[in-house]
Amino acid sequence: MSTPSSLSRTDAAATTTNPKFNRRVIGNLLLGLVLIAVPFWLPLVGGYTDLASRVLIYALAAMGLNLLLGFTGGLSFGHAAYFGLGAYGVGLMLKYETHNIFIALLAGTVLGGAAAALLGPIAARRRGIYFSMITIAIGQMFYFIAVRWNSFTGGYDGLTGFSRHPVHLPGLTLPMGSLDFYYMVLICFGLGAWGLWTILNSPLGHTFVAIRENHKRLTFLGIRTQRYIAISFAISGTIAALAGGLDAMYGNFTSPNVLEYTLSGNFLIIAVLGGMRNFWGPLVGAVIFILVRDYVSSITHNWMTVIGLIFVVSVLFFPLGILGSIKDWRALISPRIREQDAP
Amino acid sequence: MSLLELQSVGRRFGALQALSNISLNVDQGELRAIIGPNGAGKTTLFNLISGFFPPTEGAIIFDGSPITAVNPAALVRRGIIRTFQITEIFLSLTVAENLRAAVETAMGLNLRPWVSRATRARIEARVAELMDIVQLTAKADRIAGELSHGDQRVVEIGIALSRAPKLLLLDEPTAGMGDEETHLMTALIRRLNKDQGITILFVEHDMAIVFGIADRITVLDNGSMLAEGNAAEIAANPRVQSAYLGNAA
User: Fold this and answer.
1) Chain A: residue nearest B84 by CA?
2) What pLDDT, on a 0 to 100 scale, did the predictor assign at position A341?
3) Rounded mean pLDDT, B136-162
4) Phi and psi at residue B107, in whole multiples of 5°?
5) pTM of the shown model
6) The domain B1-79+166-249 is classified under which CATH number: 3.40.220.10, 3.40.50.300, 3.90.360.10, 3.30.70.260?
7) In chain A, where does DSSP find H-type helix?
8) Which domain holds residue A94?
9) Inter-chain touch A221–B105, beta carbons under 8 Å
10) Does B132 touch chain A (CB under 8 A)?
11) Which of A131, A181, A233, A284 has the highest CB neighbour number within 10 Å of its CB?
12) What value does the mean pLDDT take over residues B22-44?
């Protein structure tokens, strides 16, 4: 056991031992290097840069959702609402207000985040299935607004007539092609992941996890858990909105599909498939989801059937998700962590 | 000096008078046992003291001020902490993570999305201190849900201690434990009382434990107080013998 004096030198990780912390940092750095190098190695294995952008956008949205789902224990079926508000926020800003993609992205993120902050407290008043039902209802509300408000949102046909404009820096102009855009997505993904990582290793994040584990215990320690579920909801929605804003720029187009509950379901599938108790689980889930969609949809329209099959098999045989199951197997091999013990 | 005072407290649920006319004083630093047959009203009494529901008659005074209509969360902040018959801990977290969440709550840090190194060191020092008090340091990195029942109850007491309780309410702390676990738990209760100076009120069925460690014993039967006194007085009380000890066998 570490003594307090040695812990004071430990950095920001929720671990009591240094080697474990170092392994996690090294792992994150390696992941960062792999992602930075994507444009160099992905074409060699038959991929293209836009595919990687899409993976990171969906991964970011699912990681945001997972703060609420996997780390706070709130099953939201309505996160497409915040993703979609981010997308429409960016699209409308670029179409009507500004050519600066950073201002547009900020506006979209703030719009989706503010909606999550305002509506989260309503859902957080209930737990379990009622919580989920409220999140669907709220989510569908935005879908119908986008469909009906034809003159402003483009209705069913979606919002067009905007594009990601080149970025002018002093002495440098970035044309914002696929490559530049990938790095912009990667920077946003990195910022979002860093933010979530920091929160999860803070007292706020520990409170979220404690709510997931036993909200009754926390209530009797003097904590109003509803308030913290609402905070988790707001942060989670903000991250989803950031991803949604990037999604609008990805194809210079957005439509009511990004607000629909089927997309909320897809984010849930991504998080559960990869491992919702795992920080990087949604990234793994997004890689599988996007690759299957990209590859199978070139063969058949029924690509969702394949995703469905993978999902069913994964839930049956890897209930902890891909990353969770890998961790579990490793724990079985190393008896220090796990011990057969009846509760 | 009395830390907790109940003045003619009663509680009615519809037509059922669960508790009536309970008057008792628990002194600062006392280790008090509440005993009585099933249905005597022991857990109801705990629920009244910890604010789960208010009494329908009488008043409860804690630390000099009335707490009759104060909610559980506010009572926690005033220093009344309880454990439950069913262990309430964070099952898939490690022992250290269980206590860390509790310590951060006790320090009022829950809203902080980040903490300084100095604060983090203070948190870890307190976690280490609590693990030392409840003697779980060796199991710091074990998942709480995989510990024995006895150790899980000890984790729960560690969580309760994070709030530096003035009054600790333990609802059947040794229920379902084997001999060795029971022995460790009673030793822990005694240590908390004598070394940490925490006033403890506990409900217990095991008479050997009650007579072995309690300073004073309150006997409930059918929702009213039957007797109060030290172990020798209770053991010699003919009313207790007929109403409780006789039937318990």
Assistant:
1) A217
2) 36
3) 94
4) -80, -5
5) 0.87
6) 3.40.50.300
7) 4-7, 18-36, 38-41, 49-72, 80-92, 101-123, 128-148, 150-153, 178-200, 203-219, 225-251, 261-274, 281-296, 303-317, 321-333
8) 47-259
9) yes
10) no
11) A233
12) 91
